[in-house]
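Lesson 9: reading folded outputs for more than one chain in a single document. The general rule is that every protein is listed as its sequence immediately followed by its structure tokens, and records are never interleaved. Here is the first one.
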Amino acid sequence: MKYVLVSGGVISGVGKGIIASSTGLLLKTIGLKVSSIKVDPYLNVDAGTMNPKEHGEVFVLSDGGEVDLDLGNYERYLNITLTRENNITTGKIYQHVIERERRGDYLGKTVQVVPHITDAIQDWIEKVARIPVDDTMEEPDVCIIELGGTVGDIESMPFIEAMTSLRRRAGKNNFLQIHVSYVPVINGEQKTKPTQQAIKAVRSAGLIPDLIACRCERNLESSAVEKIAHFCQVDIEQVVVVRDMPSIYQVPLLLEQQGLIESLRSILNLQSVKISPNLIAKGRHTWAQWKTLTSTENKFFDTVTIVLVGKYIELHDSYLSVIKSLEHSAMRCRRKLDLQWVDAEHLETSTRDSDPAKFYKAWHSLCTASGILVPGGFGQRGTEGMIAAAKWARENKTPYLGICLGMQIAVIEYARNCCGLAAATSEEFNGHATDKVIMFMPEVDKQTMGATMRLGLRPTLFQPGSKWSRMRALYAGKAEILERHRHRYEVNPAYIDQLEKGGLSFVGKDDKGERMEIVEIKDHPWFVGVQFHPEYLSRVLDPSRPYLGFVAASAGLLEEIMRDAMNGNGSGGDVDCVVNGVDGISINGESQTASF
């Protein structure tokens, strides 16, 4: 087994996840089987209880693991399926060691950070790195390890010590470290001193970076590269410049152009790895698709404007997988995505009274959008604004997609305005309401918050009589699909008949026919709600079907996309199914570069 460690210095948020994912993608293009592990040095056992406005979204895996959002990048870039064990936290490690100590596994010895915690980290990595993660079902050749946080933080020290020992355990030519550092520009001058200090700090901690990835807003001047190489005592070829790109999907191309594949091949002695000819051919095909999709050739497409009505919009990473799914679908539809952010509270009448400017600006964005998306979330705040958005979309024939809470919102709106249930609401918003059309799932633990929701990959069955369903057409007419879930509330079965008689069609249900999974309105260009989170399975070369249908409907291309899906020319097809010229996305009218 060969390991690539990606660490970071100077500041957090320099893009370790994208660099790690891009490195893994380049290794896959030459036919290697790649896995990935994310190390998070916080005490939480998992990311499930973390505030999305502070930490970003919680990414859910097929096995129900609630993990760091970077694992979503790994799955999207590498087209692999990871498990909860691929996300290591300080909480998990200490819990594991303490459980062993309670069982007497240490035979009465004093349990210490070194060697017991550090050995547990290494053992965990070595075990998980060998688990098959792709359709070959074979042991991976390389494992990418991303060390979260910043080298020098107290929380990271046990992991750094463990990585130092892992390099020795792995042996020569089996361990490579990429250290990511930020090069700021002050008064027009690129400053290399932070990177010099970062490399000094990481070396003093016992790690020896083989490559230095310099994050910067613009291309580094040759003098800056030479200064970093000189003072960090590396060859110029070991300094990789990772400047801001028009799209994060172009980062792998940037790394390839600087010879990263050859550096990896040389340092890890990849010539010694036996690679299947089939995987080499598959890797080349994938790379050809990727380059076609992310070509820098200027192509100008029509714009599709999507408004996201959410409650955590202060931090866009709260909806990272949603954004990526929209990007994947817009590229497939040959459209430039203009993503507008609307705070759900600003659509409510209380905001009109307190801040009319915010109210009318939010409604202007909503009313002029090509499509309206209401994603998942928790709590009552902003839900009346979401209901107003769903009502506007339904009445004005604007394409609507509701995810998890967004589906429940659509059901509440329809119950109130089309089924005579004026007081319809969710048990989450009012536990004493009379018409709780959304209820708490009876088997879920109300007292414990962590890992108690309905989580992971679960089946949805399209119902008899649903052949008209646009959603079903996008899934190529399949009778059963698998999607990932994360929710505590569901549509109340007591109201299903009344809602369906009123015109709301539950075209998809769970395998027992008890839980409503997909709701759709027939007499509408696109009005769909799904209880699951399809964004977790969206891939760059294979967009999520609900998102693809939504964006296609918003762009006036739904019939074409459905026809392709039914004919087997879906989103994961040949190169000619994808498009050139990804210029990033536009948020609230401003072009966004990949300053990740």
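And here is the second record, again sequence then tokens.
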Amino acid sequence: MALTFFRYSAVDPESRPIDVKQVRSEYDFIVVGGGSAGAVVANRLSENPSWTVLLLEAGGDETEISDVPSLAGYLQLSDLDWKYKTAPSPEESPYCLAMNGDRCFWPRGKVLGGSSVLNAMIYILHYFKKSEDNRNPYLANTTYHSQGGYLTVQESPWRSPLALAFVKGGEELGYEMRDINGEKQTGFMIAQGTIRRGSRCSTAKAFLRPIRLRKNLHISMYSQVTKILMGRPKSDDPRPRAIGVRYMRDGVYRTVRAKKEVVLSAGAIKFQTVSVAMDYIINERGPLTSLGGVEGVAFVNTKYADKSGLLPDIQFHFAPSSVNSDGGEQIRKVLNLRDAVYNTMYKPLVEAETWTILPLLLRPLSKGWVRLKNANPMSYPIIEPNYFTHKEDVLTLIEGIRIALNLSDTKAFQRFNSRPLLTQMPGCRKFPFDTDPYWECALRHFTFTIYHPVGTCKMGPAHDPTAVVDPRLRVHGVTGLRVVDGSIMPAIVSGNPNGPIIMIGEKGSDLIKEDWGYV
């Protein structure tokens, strides 16, 4: 810990953002939430020196632990996490049955940089070029990437031998090794991530630290917004308008007014040996630079995918580790895994070498809800993800599991004597192993997402009763209020959404500038 802190303080060239405890009574723009989109919006709006911008963030700054890529799992359930949980599932379509209380954790970043501080840093999809500073020459010199932006993107400087086996195994199955942030998405690749010199490159580090001395930008941390203040309509516009916010800091409620707009970017909701630590601190490499443990990414097609082969329906995250790899210290906790499940399936493997493929559903048909629990802004919402309400989602994931099993059987993995875990999931032993009913039961027990909720403030036309914002991200029926974050997506993107949410921050900032005559 001391060595990591030394590196964090000595090597990072940019100082921490300044936490302004005394804010002005009024700003041109108030940005609520300093996460993947909010940090971008605050940066871009404050490029106009004649505008004043206040960024309000409920959490504090990043820590020396959050800076270490491979320790992403240790940030969940910490003070940097909102610690959300799903509601128990309905009997007719159960999920999360292997978790304590039948509830899955939904970690979200309560920190400057938001969930870009907690995520596995995987970078997927390409508008993106405006933000990107790609530091892998073979990628940066293509038309689908760029250099010189605020956000550093590159491969981890360290990987296990299994990472190459993952890519080679994919080729044996007929998939190309390619840049899946390029022209085509289907294929296998070594993971690209938002890291810089072996450390996490969050949006706070990328977009806020370099501009920390701008006089027209104030950042107030530990400031939780509780209410949007509404004012009288203008004489020429009968709609109510947002004129400011109410927020709590240090146990005291405060108000601040916005002359132009309020921008909501609050979100849609074991290696630490000394030698490894020294390699990380001195050489900026080694296992600690691993992207949250993820070394490979692939996009594959099940039999349910579009027949063109260009619209994959399953994404793989490959990791040379598993739930057992830390001896049950942290991974089982962040999964909220029941003792009976861990002790049966993973505890016997504590001394074994294991690897994992997570098949992820790219185009789910099942949709959930986030509802207010009550009128208290401090109360956590009720999260009902409604996983597996559509049978096709289950069937697609089962096909993804079978492709993963086929990958294990390739020559590339058989060099390592790879074989699947045959221990059956508690609660599913009545079904024969490797049958569709068994895998459906296993999915409904060990329900696992990679925490990418979107769509709670859907963009759409005014005549759509489910739409919240218009194509310029303005809230329908209100003036002076926009939403700029992943919640505006009408549907989830087919890949890790951190890059697209940063893009939304870039595009939303441009829309605001255009509407206020600053181009």
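What the second record shows: Residues 391-408 form the longest helix (18 residues).
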